[in-house]
Amino acid sequence: MEPEVRPVAVRGLEDVIAADTRIGYVDGANGKLYYAGYEINDLAKHASYEECVFLLWNDRLPTKKELMDFRAEIIPEMTLPRPLIQWFRRVPRGVHPMVMLRSAISDLALYDKETEDNSLEANRRKAARLVAKVPSVIANFYRIYNGLDLIEPDPKKGIAVNFLRMFTGKEPDKKSREAIELMFVLHADHGFNASTFAARVTASTLADIYAAVTAAIGALKGPLHGGANQRVMEMLEGIGSPDDVEDYINGLLARRERIMGFGHRVYKVEDPRARHLRKYSEDVCGGDVACSRYYAISRRIEQQVKKTKGIYPNVDFYSATVQHALGIPVDYYTTVFAASRIAGWTAHVMEQHADNRLMRPRSQFVGKLPRRFVQMEKRKK
Ligand SMILES: CC(C)(COP(=O)(O)OP(=O)(O)OC[C@H]1O[C@@H](n2cnc3c(N)ncnc32)[C@H](O)[C@@H]1OP(=O)(O)O)[C@@H](O)C(=O)NCCC(=O)NCCS
Question: What is the DSSP letter of 381?
Fold first, then answer.
C-alpha cells in the first residue's frame, strides 16, 4: 500500500495563507507594516502603546475619552495575585526569564475566575488583565529575584513607562520614556509570525486565552524568533570594537552560522521597525561609552552583512542596543518583546474564537508503509 500522493509539504509553511485577519498586515515586498490598516510609521510617530492595543482589539482608533477609560481599566490590573509573587521567591537560581514568564502566565489562569469562559466579553476582560500583567510579571519577578523592593504601578502613566520604572526602580527621563513607548508600539503585532500562529492554533481547539498565550511565549523564546534580540547583544559583546566586525562576520558566514537580528521570512527589503529602532538606539545611547560602541559596531555589522549577504536588519537587531541603554539585562530582552506582543496575541485569540474552525493541517508521510508487526522475541538484537 502506498501513502496517498499529495503535493509536497511547504517547508516552514512559507507563503502559506493560514487564516483571514483584520489585525495586522506585513507588506514584505515594500517593507511596510500596518496595524488594522494604519501604517506603523504613523503609529510610531503619533500613537501611544494603549492606542495601538485598543486599535488591534477594536479595529478602530479610540476617542480621547475611550483611551482615558481604557487606561483607567488596565493600569490597576498591573497588580499581581499574591501567590504568584510568593512563587517568584521559590524560582530556582539560574532560570531563564522566558521560562519563568511562560510558567507565570500559565499560573495566572489559576487565579482568574473567567479562565474557562471563551465568550468575546470575557476574553476582552482577560485580554486587559494579560496586557497589564505580562509586563508586571517581568518587572516584579526581576526585582524579587534580585532582592529589590517592588515598585507600584503609577495610575498616571501608561503600561510601557510603568513597566520600565517598575523594572529599573528609577523614574525614566524623557528620552527613555519615548524609547520604551516606541519599543512597545513597534512590537505589538506582526501578522502570522510563529508565536502568534502558535496562539491561534491553540485557540482554535477552543482552549482558553491563557493556554494560547502560554503556547505563544514558548514559541517566542527560540533564537530564530524573539530570542534573537538576546543573541544580538551577546554578539555585540563578543565583537569588542568596530574594527573587528569584518573578520567576525566573515568568520560566522564561513562557518555557515546565522547572523542574529538579520533576515526575515516576509520582508525582502528593510524591516520598517529596524529603521525606527536604529534612530532611537543612537539617540538613547547619548554619552554612554559602552552603548555608543555597541551602536557603532551595529552600524558596521549592518554594512558588512548587506555587502556580503544582501540581507537587512530585523526588529531584533537595534532593539538590543535600545534595551541596553534602558538598563534591561540581556537575558530579559525577549521578555520585553513579550510584554508588548501580548497585545497582538490577545487580539488574535479573540479573532480566532469569534469565528473559529479547528486548525488541523496534515503532513506528508515519507516513512515505510505498511510494516509487518514483529513479536518482541522475534526482533533482531
Ligand atoms: C528569520 C529567519 C529564520 C528567516 O529565515 P528563512 O525565511 O527560513 O530563510 P532561510 O533560512 O531559508 O534563508 C535563506 C537564505 O538567507 C540566508 N540567511 C537568512 N538569514 C540569515 C542570517 N541571519 N544570517 C546568515 N544568513 C542568513 C540563509 O543562509 C539562506 O542563504 P542560502 O540560500 O545562501 O543558504 C532567518 O533570517 C534567520 O535565521 N535570522 C536570524 C535570526 C533572527 O534574527 N530572527 C528574528 C527574526 S524577526
Answer: -
Could you count the other beta carbons within 10 Å of the beta carbon of residue 311?
15
Instruction: Tell me how far apart the 2 most distant CA atoms of the chain are, in Å.
Output: 76
The model scores a pTM over 0.90: yes
For residue 313, list its beta bridge partners: 262
313-to-128, 234, 283, 320 alpha-carbon distances in Å: 32, 16, 18, 12
Catalytic residue, candidates 112, 208, 271, 316: 316
Per the prediction, the chain carries an average pLDDT of 96
Grid cell locating 366: 515519507
What do you get for the CA distance between the two ends of the chain, in Å? Answer: 28
What is the C-alpha separation between 240 and 51, in angstroms, rounded? 39
CA distance 327 to 148: 15
Give the separation between CA 269 and CA 31, rounded to whole angstroms. Answer: 6
Q: Select which of 264, 276, 348, 353 is catalytic.
A: 264
Q: Is the CB of 235 under 6 A from ligand 1?
A: no
Closest CA to 158 of 61, 55, 49: 49
334 Cα: distance to centroid of ligand 1 (angstroms): 19
Domains of the chain in start order, with CATH, are 24-223+330-354 (1.10.580.10), 228-325 (1.10.230.10)
Lay out the sheet containing 32-35: strands in order across: 24-27, 32-35, 38-39
CA nearest 54: which of 42, 63, 44?
63
Residue with CA nearest ligand 1 atom 41? 260
Provide the pLDDT for residue 5. 61
Phi, psi of 122 (to 5 degrees): -70, -40
H or E element at residue 306 = helix 289-309
Residue of the nearest CA to atom 28 in ligand 1? Answer: 258
The C-alpha R_g of the chain, in whole angstroms, comes to 22
Angle at 84 between CA 215 and CA 114, to 5 degrees: 60
Q: 239-244 long-range contacts, Cβ below 8 Å, gap at least 24?
A: 239/297, 239/301, 241/293, 241/297, 242/293, 242/296, 242/297, 242/299, 242/300
Pick out the chain residues at pLDDT < 70.
1-6
Identify each DSSP E strand in the chain by its residue range: 24-27, 32-35, 38-39
Is 225 a residue of the active site? Answer: no
Q: Residue 286: its pLDDT value, please? A: 81
Grid coordinates in use for 313?
536588519
